[in-house]
Amino acid sequence: GEAIDERWFLGMASKIVGVQHYGGVGDRESVVLQRQPNNPYDRNAVQVLNSRSEQIGHLPREMAAVLAPIMDQHRNADSAEELRFEGHVPRGSGNVFSVPLRLAVFGRDPSGRLAPRLRDLGERLRGTYCAAARGGVDVQSSPQEQGTPVAEIDDRTWAVITGGKPSARTIAQSGLSMQDILERELEGIFRTGARYEDMPEAEAPTSLRTALYPHQRKALHWMLQREDLTVDQALAELGGAEASATGHSPASSSSGGAARRG
Q1: N or C, where is the chain less crowded by C-beta within 10 Å?
Q2: Neighbours of 28 (CB within 10 A)
Q3: pTM for this model (two decimals)
């Protein structure tokens, strides 16, 4: 019979989670999804494997709950329909807890029944928040109702599917999102290699009546290092609102704030 062209239906951007236990992936490396129905913690679990079939981590639990049923259905089905998930790590392979992931869904749909199911799948994923990945699933759908033939995909669409680097103009227009900044800072904290027990603690401010726990003093020390302020200077900065209420403008620098508080 006539060969049925493979088509692209969906692109998804999310995270591989749980990677601190495994590792073994590089930027721009292809990855494989594999169902793990016997996982004792989650019957919908989907493993992410590298090219050597070594586990990198898992899909977020909430995302796996949406994808697992259709993966199982097509793994066990005996029909002309074919469904293929292609994974790719665009960047951030050295992250400690989660690694960016791009997924593309391809398939052959001779009956035309697969396309509407995948459109519905995309809509469900758009409304899915993944707690461990600290965000939702970014979904791109084929502009063609029956999917885009792979042979017709242009370079720009391939870049979207695989998480290709945006142009310098796009970066200049949009800048880094707050989510990007927070994740970069969090990854930087845990990439130091220092053990929790060995992390230094800041002295509790003398004006603070409530005792600080050790983890709070460690966090305070880290924040003060980033700000390059003393405890008193930091408190002076925090007192800017109080100063403005008395007719004084907040300090434009840490030293100025400390002087007014003194």
Answers
A1: N
A2: 14
A3: 0.59
